[in-house]
Write a structure and sequence with these properties.
By secondary structure, the chain is α/β, with parallel strands linked by helices. It has two domains: 153 residues, SPOUT methyltransferase, trefoil knot domain (Alpha/beta knot), CATH 3.40.1280; 59 residues, Trp Operon Repressor, Chain A, CATH 1.10.1270. 34% of the residues lie in helices and 19% in strands. Strand 9 and strand 10 form a beta hairpin. The mean pLDDT is 94. Bound molecules: 6-[(3-hydroxybenzyl)amino]pyridine-3-carboxamide. 6-[(3-hydroxybenzyl)amino]pyridine-3-carboxamide (4G3) binds next to strand 5 and strand 7. The site of 6-[(3-hydroxybenzyl)amino]pyridine-3-carboxamide has 17 residues, from strand 5 and strand 7.
Length: 230
């Protein structure tokens, strides 16, 4: 999968993408991530990317032309790839979840647009395929949301995470929260590891985990049970 990110702060992506799973996927050639500085696509000498809002008000608005030029350039360089999915990260977007991550993990090419300032000129939305939000809060820019999205999507691409198991059995994969996990020692400050997990009986362990996942979900996120096919 190719991932192009349009941002005013390309350096922000350096360390998160130089670590862990994303790095491993890049090294293996499973993903290629490129960042593009929006300022490079400004048309004037001063490399202006924002301006005052029509109608007045506080804050600045991202101009549409630099974003449009960046998209055109990236698309033209990517002629071989069939389809590009253009995503805009914004608090006005559809809430990102595991289902959306699985959907995006199937794409060949993602273009992520990170907004800044108060908003982006509304006319650029015509060129976006989807507007996505990572949660109901406002950040200074779309960069952190883009990193969150990339991390969630990349680990679902086949060959990125070692065992399929660890992704499939994940919290949220089944639509339930995860069950509790334990490791050594068997007794920690008088608290024991549940007996079922020490039994060596795989069916007993599976049932214990399912029951605990259901209990966890019921107690912490009852709303999820309505969405889950049982
Ligand atoms: C566009 C995304 C971008 C409009 C972006 C603010 C939070 C999210 C921005 C706008 C963002 C999110 C930049 N903050 N919840 N800030 O995914 O009003």
């Amino acid at each position: 999968m190719k991932i192009d990110i349009i941002t005013l702060f390309p350096d922000m992506f350096d360390s998160p993408f130089a670590e862990s799973i994303v790095r491993r996927a890049s090294k293996k050639g499973i993903i290629q991530i490129n960042t593009h500085n929006l300022r490079d696509f400004a048309t004037d000498k001063r490399r202006t990317v924002d301006d005052k809002p029509y109608g007045g008000g506080a804050g600045m608005v991202l101009k549409p032309e630099p974003v449009y030029r960046a998209i055109r350039k990236i698309k033209s360089k990517n002629k071989g790839t069939e389809k590009s999915k253009i995503l805009f990260l914004s608090p006005q977007g559809k809430l990102f979840d595991q289902k959306k991550a699985k959907e995006l993990a199937k794409e060949k090419h993602l273009i992520l647009i990170c907004g800044h300032y108060e908003d982006i000129d509304a006319r650029i939305m015509k060129f976006m395929d989807e507007e996505i939000s990572i949660g109901d809060y406002v950040l200074t820019g779309g960069e952190l949301p883009a990193m969150v999205l990339v991390d969630a999507v990349v680990r679902l691409i086949p060959g990125v995470v070692k065992e399929k198991e660890s992704v499939i059995q994940d919290s949220f994969y089944s639509g339930l929260l995860d069950y509790p996990h334990y490791t050594r020692p068997r007794v920690f400050r008088k608290m024991k590891v549940p007996e079922a997990l020490l039994s060596g009986n795989h069916e007993k362990i599976r049932l214990w985990r399912l029951k605990e996942a259901l209990r966890n979900t019921y107690n912490k996120r009852p709303g999820l049970l309505k969405k889950t096919k049982m």
